[in-house]
Structure formats: C-alpha cells, structure tokens
Amino acid sequence: MLSTGPQLRLLPLLLFCVTLVLLFQVTYAKRDLKSACVTCQQITDNFNKGFDRTAKQGFGGGNTAWEERKLSKYETSEIRLMEIVEGLCDSSSFECNRMLEEHEDLFETWWFKRKTKHPDLHKWFCIETIKVCCPKGTFGPDCNACVGGSDRPCHGNGMCDGDGTRGGDGKCSCDHGYEGESCLDCIDGYFSEVRNDTFSLCTGCHESCKTCSGATNQDCDECKEGWEEDDQEACVDVNECSKDPPPCEEDQYCLNTDGSYSCKACSKVCAGCTGAGPDNCQACASGYQDTEGTCTDIDECSQPEPVCSEEHQECINNKGSYVCICSKGYEEEDGKCVETPQSEKDEESEESEATAGQHGEL
Ligand SMILES: *[C@@H]1O[C@H](CO)[C@@H](O)[C@H](O)[C@H]1NC(C)=O
C-alpha cells in the first residue's frame, strides 16, 4: 500500500505526456500529408524530366538498322527506367529518398504494366496509388472539392488550404482585397465592381477613401484620416501645415503630403525656417548673418573690435563661432598665454597649439 502512493501521483503526469505525444503526432501527420504530396510531385516532375532527357539515348551511338532495333528496345527497357529513377531525388533530400525507397517497385509496375493505360504518372502514382495527393481543386483524405468548387477554388480570389493534397482543411485564404469564407466580399478600402453568387471583382478605392462605392474621391462613404470632405462631398487632402498651432517643432519646417505631413529639420544656420537650406530661414542662428536672404557665417576674427584680446593670442574663425588660441611658442596658464619653457618647447609644441578657449573665454 505504501508504494502505490507515489505511483498514483505520477499517473496524471504520465497521462499528460501520452496526450502530448498523441497531439503532436496528429498535428505532425496533418502537415505531413501536404508535404508528402509536394515530395511526390517533385518525384514525378523529375521522372518526366528524366524521361525527356533519356528520349534520344540508346545503348550506344550509330543509326544502323541493328542500332535502331536496339533503340526501340531501350525506350521501354529496365535500363532506361533505372537511369530515370537515379535522378529522382537529391541525395540530401531525406523525405524524397524515403518515399522512393518505400515505393520503388511501383515505378517498375507502372513502367512495364500501367504506362499505356495511365500515361499521367503523377495522377496514377501520387493521387490514385499512394494517395498523398488529390486532383486540383480538391483536398483532404477523401479529395473533397474546395469552397467555390474544384474548377475555381475560393471563386478565383484565394487559395484553398491543402489544394491538390490529402491534407488541409479546404478553408480559403483570400487574395488581398477579398474576405469572407468564400472570398466574395470586399475588404474596407475596396468596392465591389461586379458580383453574383459565384463571381466577385473587388477594386481599390481612391486613396482618400476609408470606404467607398466607386473609384473616385467623390465615391467615398468615409474619408481616410488626413483627408476631409469638401463642399462637393469629395475627400480632399487636409493641409496639416497651415494648422494653428503648427504641428512641427521650432527648428523644423512642415512638409504637407497627400493624406499626411512630415516635419524636416531646418538648416543649422537658421533660427526657424520655412523650407530646406540656408535661404529659407526665418532668422539666422547666432554666429550667422543675413546676406541677401541667405544666412552666412560671421567672421568674428575680422571685426574691427578684436575678439581675442589677451596678449599673444590668435583668433581662429569657424562655422558659427570662433576660438582664441595662444600663438606659437606660448601656452595657456591661468587664462593667460605665457611663453613655453625652453626645455619643453619641442615636445609640447603641438599640445600648446591645441590649447584653446571657446568664444574668446580663455
Ligand atoms: C457571374 O458573373 C460572371 C462574370 O460576369 C459570369 O461569367 C457568370 O456567368 C455569372 N454567374 C451567374 C450565376 O450569374
């Protein structure tokens, strides 16, 4: 009695594992049926290619009557069959080689006994004999017709799940623009141009419509975001850039587009702008001045009042600003430029040249 305790407690876990394995096998087998058909299709495609490739081949060359007889013998020979079968699978394709091994004798049966009556190898082998495929427009273990019928699965507007295989559930995945179980309905943004019980043509609305009943911007039922109805009941672009307050930051300009807008960075030389480049500034950034409508750099170093006022200082202009550095042979010490000590001069000359203060503040 004591020993049954732990075993009983393990039972649910065991059941769970068994269920998991079964579930896995069921889902795997379902997917397997589709891929088995794909493999079979590849095999029969390669068979037909091999058949064509060996059509002009004999046992050897020549065209004497004796060779001719040999050739006609080759056409239906076991040797030709073997040559074709050799090229059916890539050596790396496990599924293909497994299927081929399992059914190798069937190729011989077909080659010698069925070929004349059943010339379509795919139909005879994949669909009727090993039953991994179905005729086009049908699916599942019993090859039932797809939604919409086998001639036009999903009414020509989608793909039937498992179409042509023994797998799948026959449900439609509709092409873009269509929806519904049988792909006859139009999605939002599309309108029905033609429709009856078996046929449907959905066409895209004008870009300004969310939903519509026709192709122009006057046929909208509802405007898309970024568009609004004008006094003729047509959807037209909203100019977001003329809104108050403006939608962009101060160092950006606004670009209106159909149904939307974007904010772009102003040129660095601007303080606010109406467009791209240095000639669309509302004002110039500090360090820049307006020269005939374009913001250009101010050369602080060539102003009448010197900006680098310490002794032995040089002014160097750069974009939007300037720097004061100590002249050659001098280095910065406590805000002044002092002569570089003789002994260190050579080693540190580069360093002292680089010593610089922004905006003249040493
Ligand atoms: C449905 O419309 C299509 C295309 O216009 C047409 O070919 C078909 O015969 C129509 N079917 C019916 C049942 O009216």
From TrEMBL:
GO cellular component, one term: endoplasmic reticulum
Annotated EGF-like domain residues: 142-184, 297-336
Pfam family, one: EGF_CA
Family assignment from sequence similarity: Belongs to the CRELD family.
Disulfide bonds: 174-183
Annotated compartments: Endoplasmic reticulum
One biological process term in Gene Ontology: epithelial cell differentiation
Protein name: Cysteine-rich with EGF-like domains 2
Entry keyword set: Calcium, Disulfide bond, EGF-like domain, Endoplasmic reticulum, Glycoprotein, Repeat, Signal
Regions that span the bilayer: none
Chief place where the protein resides: endoplasmic reticulum
Molecular function GO labels: calcium ion binding
Stored InterPro entries: DUF3456, EGF, EGF-like_Ca-bd_dom, EGF-type_Asp/Asn_hydroxyl_site, EGF_Ca-bd_CS, Furin_repeat, Growth_fac_rcpt_cys_sf, LE_dom
Organism the protein comes from: Sparus aurata (Gilthead sea bream)
Signal peptide as annotated in the record: 1-29
Region (Disordered): 332-362
